[in-house]
Write a structure and sequence with these properties.
Elements lengths: L7 H48 L8 E5 L2 H4 L6 E10 L2 E6 L2 E3 L3 E2 L3 E3 L14 E2 L1 H8 L25 H4 L24
Parallel strand pairs: 4-7
Antiparallel strand pairs: 1-2, 1-6, 2-3, 3-4, 3-5
């Protein structure tokens, strides 16, 4: 076998060819990454637009809506939304009326959804102002106000021993119990 000696010019040409190949590959990779990023951006925009469009139904005076009750105000009730009627729109916020009174705070559209149920009260006859918490308490037919709930446990188990504050007080666990994220409150045996 004959070996040919490489001249310095040939070695330099090989290095140039390798560099050209590397640049070509990196350009192709960059183009692919940019293309993938553009696709991901389009998908995120579509997803965001779908969510935003779901919530951008504009309500007018007299529309039936349901108000999302904040989790801290839900209390022992299973009610998560409060049916209301739009009284008026002030800038980009709504003033609502429920059967228990006029909601004190003006609410953003993100907190409202269209309500298709029947509301049997006259908006004009309701004159008393009420907080969301008080309206939720009345709507949930609860005898205890949320402020009156004195006992809450932070159990990490099933609440079946005297270590549970609620069992010690002869009470059932409520929605204020088991606030730790790592605990599955469904495993509690001391629920209503």
């Amino acid at each position: 076998m004959e070996e040919t000696a490489s001249t310095p010019e040939e070695i330099g040409q090989d290095e140039v060819d390798l560099e050209t190949i590397r640049l070509t590959r990196s350009r192709a990779l960059r183009e692919q990454v940019n293309s993938n990023q553009d696709i991901a951006v389009e998908k995120m925009c579509k997803k965001h637009d779908r969510k935003r469009n779901k919530r951008t139904v504009l309500f007018k005076k007299g529309d039936c809506v349901s108000l999302k009750i904040p989790s801290i105000d839900v209390g022992g009730s299973e009610l998560s939304r409060l049916p209301c009627i739009v009284k008026e729109m002030i800038h980009d916020k709504y003033q609502l009326v429920c059967e228990y009174g006029i909601i004190e705070s003006h609410l953003r559209i993100e907190e409202l959804e269209l309500y298709s149920g029947l509301l049997e009260f006259e908006v004009d006859k309701v004159t008393e102002m009420i907080s969301i918490r008080a309206a939720a308490a009345l709507a949930g037919n609860r005898t205890k106000a949320i402020k009156e709930i004195e006992v809450e446990c932070d159990c990490t188990g099933k609440c079946n021993t005297k270590q549970c504050k609620c069992i010690k007080a002869n009470l059932k666990c409520n929605s204020h119990c088991h606030r730790k994220k790592s605990v599955d409150s469904k495993s509690c045996l001391n629920r209503n």
